[in-house]
Amino acid sequence: MATVAWTGGGIRIIDQSRLPDEEVWLVLRSAEEVAEAITSMRVRGAPAIGAAAAMGLALAVSSGRDVDEVAAMLTATRPTAVNLEWAIHRVAGAARSGGATAAVAEAVAIADEDVRVNRALGQMGSSLLSDGSHVLTHCNAGALATVDYGTALGVVRAAVASGKRVRVWVGETRPVLQGARLTSWELRRDRIPVTVVADTAVGALVASGRVGCVVVGADRVAANGDVANKIGTYTLAVLATRHRVPFYVAAPTSTIDLATPDGRTIVIEERPADEVRRLRGATVTPDDVEVWNPAFDVTPAELVTAIVTEVGVVTAPFADGLRSAVSRASDARGAVVPLP
Ligand code: MRU
Prior knowledge:
The protein is built from 10 helices and 16 strands. The chain is α/β, with parallel strands linked by helices. It has 2 domains: about 5-120, translation initiation factor eif-2b, domain 1 (Four Helix Bundle (Hemerythrin (Met), subunit A)); about 120-335, Translation initiation factor eif-2b, domain 2 (Rossmann fold, 3-Layer(aba) Sandwich), CATH 3.40.50.10470. Strand 1 (about 5) and strand 2 form a beta hairpin. It is globular, with a radius of gyration of 19 Å. The structure holds 5-S-methyl-1-O-phosphono-5-thio-D-ribulose (MRU). The site of 5-S-methyl-1-O-phosphono-5-thio-D-ribulose (MRU) has 17 residues, from helix 2 and strand 9. 5-S-methyl-1-O-phosphono-5-thio-D-ribulose binds near residues 45, 81, 139 and 217.
């Protein structure tokens, strides 16, 4: 399942806002349609929005539009995931040096690389899971959140492919319900056992001893190893630490932001109040009640057991390991996918 694909004249995506009720595929035909799809979370997950924005920019450049203007418009759609600006920067650079043909080639390369990278990351992480593992994850860091295969769920998929039995637990992930709607949907398609719990049940679940480790994705990893990810991730990290359960972050090197020293300066997106006031169309609060709706939180590096990347598993102290992972990955990328 390629969640994001270049069709030549557009970008094909699965509309994640309609899952699991309906499986609807859309073809986006302009950068503005891509921006709308990212803002409304029809396409979501750090690597997936990076790939979609890359293709949206390539599409705009192909129709003669100004690179900087469109790049700025797409970058402004969601502020927290670094993959978005990383992918846009790559395509903008290609467009400036090689025009539309180079921009399209770069966008397609970003999507192709994502799948290879996730498979490599999955292999690296699978050794952390033993046969019979019970993994708690959060939100959706699976095929839907990437171009394919997934990061946290890529680790699970690789472990299952190597013959291990793995059970996944996932919190429903209010307010947008990525755990309940998306992670359960994609794991069931792969026949990987999955159990959904209400977010309020995770404390009792971890305390019950049924969770062997936590594996989550990331939207931005700061240079010191602080991790921004879906709101509620920090709660899981605190629980994991309290109950001495390993807390793993699965993040491709494209999610590591060496320019951000620590989590304090990561911009946390705040989303519309109605995402909290309403639940799949039904009102669950007084109409105009005040709401705070941050989409992400920051888990301090000291609560993270290891960060799994496509080039290796990084443990504390994270700064040197993350820097070396980024440099090894960019050397490998240079060798595999020559820039135009
Ligand atoms: O708001 P979302 O659904 O885009 O947030 C997604 C997450 O927080 C994921 O865990 C993260 O992007 C990693 S996806 C491989």
